[in-house]
Design brief:
By secondary structure, the chain is of the alpha/beta class. It has one domain: Collagenase (Catalytic Domain), CATH 3.40.390. 25% of the residues lie in helices and 19% in strands. The protein is built from 6 helices and 7 strands; from the N terminus they run βαβαβαβββααβα. Strands 3-2-4-6-5-1-7 form a 7-stranded mixed β-sheet, sandwiched between helices. Strand 5 and strand 6 form a beta hairpin. Helix 2 runs parallel beside helix 5. The N terminus is likely disordered. This is Membrane metalloprotease.
Length: 256
């Protein structure tokens, strides 16, 4: 279990929300249908070597929104600790012109992927697209701060503008820690956590937050909260870890 460290900081009251969208497969295929499926439906393909022996991750960022090297390193270590890909996991970064679409709604997510994604599954290599956006998510409530959205089976958007704004506040975690936590959490949804594509080994889905874990401190909780001068500081640099129930779910579909 993760230990919570109490640290005296300036008052911060915000909930980081991880937004995870389940969508139907697009009718416009053009040979890309394997990467246009429901969120969590390719968990076994992502985590095991039964179908795909390598993983190619395309990280696209709007100019000026490159993620930190530390976050990418933590993210790669997270993947290597959970997946079987004997031919390796490649992470490639490149920049694109800002989209100008902020705030992003579901149609914007599809459009920016269509405009910037270049890699799709080929042979025994599975491809993932991750976009670091020059904007924020269109919110239904002023009380929510959304850091990332997992949508489709191999697609993630990270709201880098939102992350940087929060990281700049007094007492907030570093930008690298927030980026890495968001990347790991959203990739957990691509794996199929929680009950998105994996049948849970035990009952640990939050009844109030579909697709999320009910264990305090787990990476797959729906939010990370910073309240009343307390930070949920975590051993090992501050990035939340998967709890035992989530790990058992991943192992049930061929993960480590």
């Amino acid at each position: 279990m993760i230990r919570i460290k109490k640290i005296l900081l300036l008052f911060i009251s915000t909930a980081f929300v991880f937004s995870c969208t389940t969508e139907s497969v697009d009718r416009k295929d053009n040979g890309k249908s394997a990467n246009l499926k429901l969120t969590g439906s390719s968990g076994a393909d992502l985590i095991s070597d039964m179908e795909f022996t390598s993983m190619n991750i395309e990280i696209v960022y709007a100019d000026g929104n490159r993620p930190t090297s530390e976050a990418i390193s933590i993210f790669q270590n997270f993947l290597e600790s959970r997946v079987y890909k004997p031919d390796g996991i490649k992470i490639n970064l490149r920049s694109v012109e800002p989209s100008g679409r902020s705030p992003f709604d579901e149609d914007d997510l599809k459009a920016v992927e269509e405009e910037t994604r270049t890699l799709y599954n080929v042979g025994d290599e599975i491809a993932i697209w991750i976009y670091f956006a020059d904007g924020e998510k269109e919110e239904g409530s002023d009380d929510l701060v959304t850091l990332g959205t997992a949508f489709r089976n191999t697609s993630i958007i990270i709201y880098e503008k939102t992350i940087r704004e929060f990281a700049a506040r007094n007492g907030a975690p570093s930008r690298a820690i927030i980026e890495a936590s968001t990347l790991n959490h959203e990739f957990g949804h691509l794996f199929g956590l929680v009950d998105l594509g994996i049948e849970p080994v035990s009952d640990h889905e939050d009844p109030e937050k579909e697709g999320h874990c009910n264990t305090d401190g787990c990476l797959m909780r729906a939010s990370i909260e910073f309240r009343s001068g307390l930070v949920n500081g975590l051993d090992g640099g501050g990035v939340p870890q998967l709890d035992d129930a989530c790990i058992e779910d991943l192992q049930s579909i061929g993960g480590k």
